Amino acid sequence: MIFNLIANYAGNFLPKLILFLALPIISSRLGIEAVGIMGIQFLLVSVMTVFHQSLGRTANRVCAQASVGDDAMVKILFAIEHLFLLMGAIMAICCYLGRGWIAHAWIGPTHFPDATLLTSVALLGAMSGAQITQVFYYNSLLGLGRHKIANILLGVGDVLRYGGIIPILIFTQAGLIAVLAWQTALSLVQCASMAWLFWRSIPQLPPRTFDIRPAVRDVGQYTAGLAVIVFLSVLTTQIDRFMISAILPIALFGQYTIVSNLARLIPLLVGPISNVFFPKLSADLVGDHTRLASDYHTYAQLVTLVTVPSGLFLAVFAKDVLSVYTGGVAWTPLMAPALSFLAIGLMLAAFQEAPYILQLANGWTTLHLKLLAGLLVPLVGATWFMARLAGSQGVASVSILLGLGYLVIGVPLMHRKLLQGEGIRWLTRVLLPLAISAGICAVAYAATAKISTSLYRLLAAVPFGLVAFAVTALVSPDLRRHGHMLLDRYRATQRA
Question: Residue 449 burial by CB count (10 A; 0-12/13-18/19+): exposed, middle or buried?
């Protein structure tokens, strides 16, 4: 498990750090409006979440619960693959045909020439289409247990796609189109590489069929319910960016894009853990039920470990983090509250990750669907109202309400049905690290208050963050147990 977890972090999290390094360079070389335009692509890529969490999770679950030599399973995967290819093509074609509307009605006036905007939108669509298709191959490889090689392809491709921007902008006079063309080409190569590896991993392939009825018959209801859930989830989690991109100027949306990408480091920390535990919980539900509660609590405590100290640290020191990250540009003090609100909201939302993934592994989609449907209308209303009242800072504050809704309503109902008697155990293992980390961050804020330079203040606060991380691990019993197991194995290896 530990090696798969490391592989998933290397493939999913580290490349995003390269993107965060690239964004300030893009802003300084091409202007904050270029960041806003690339933020539109991030919104298009957020559509991938629908496919990743529905059809992608379905492919992952099918691979985890069946033998790779099962012809029926392979035919289902054929059908899901064709659906992904179709959706990727639709994304690219719609962006190309609608590039005029996106450029003029959505993005609005910029300093870029009209031809540059139109070409950029077409490239954004092609890039997003390739990434949507890639979701199928990546999830299926995870379901087959090919975590290491899948994440090597994902990580190397993303590092080149994001990291290649930096030398292009520093050492050449390339503009926005060159940057997007580079990213689009890398996305296509990355998708093709994963496709080749996936079908090489399945021996004795049956004749390829274009019949999607096996997938509709066997996993259609589960996938349809999951697709609706994730569609609503995208609306609830991305409504802030959609609202700001539509209401505020593209330059302000560029600022919010930088802030929201910093805050979304928190769910990025969670994703690799979910990639490891989703197939594990799926296998427990059809195999060893005695391991289900243990794996679930280990999963939940790992999520708490990576999100609570980092989320609180980011919220408390938002102004300093943003100042160091952007080089102290003039707008950072105004956007610091938005970063604090987003960090807290996304940290609270992360608490429901383990309960939610257990629902998906069990094939139960109705609870989360009803929860999202109930939250959507008041969330949209609150987001619109706060956008008009307080701009981006007000919009960001709504994320806290969403996180509390998940925590207060969805999590208790899940435990009542799937893991009766485990709800209190889960809650104590969340609240204790939360209280301890909050206290340590408060001490760190007070201890560094007199340091005037943001960089030095962050450096002085880092030891407090490491202490919060270590204490969270120590007060998590299932993590301590796994730590002792790893230590015993290491000692046995040394003796041998």
Answer: exposed
116 near 175, Cβ under 8 Å? yes
* CA dihedral over 187, 188, 191, 192, signed as positive or negative: negative
242 within some domain? no
pLDDT band at 68 (very low <50, low <70, confident <90, very high): very low
CB-CB contact of 342 with 396 (8 Å): yes
> In this structure, are residues 202 and 74 in contact, taking their beta carbons and an 8 Å threshold?
yes
Range of the domain at 75: 1-211
Structure tokens at 223: 């996938």
Report the 10 Å Cβ neighbour count for 462.
12
- What tens digit of pLDDT does each residue of 193-238 get? 988 888 887 765 556 655 555 555 555 555 555 556 666 666 676 6
Q: Find the farthest-apart pair of alpha carbons in the chain and give their distance in angstroms, rounded.
A: 70
Q: Which two tokens stand for residue 235?
A: 């609306």
* Number of compact structural domains in the chain: 2
Token couple for 360 = 């998906």
- Considering the domain boundaries, does residue 243 fall inside one? no
Q: What is the DSSP letter of 496?
A: -
Kind and range of the H or E run holding 111: none
Residues 382 and 255 in one domain: yes
pLDDT higher than 50, residue 458: yes
Please give the angle made by the CA atoms of 252, 258 and 261, to the nearest 5 degrees.
Answer: 135
Q: Alpha-carbon distance 76 to 212, whole Å?
A: 7
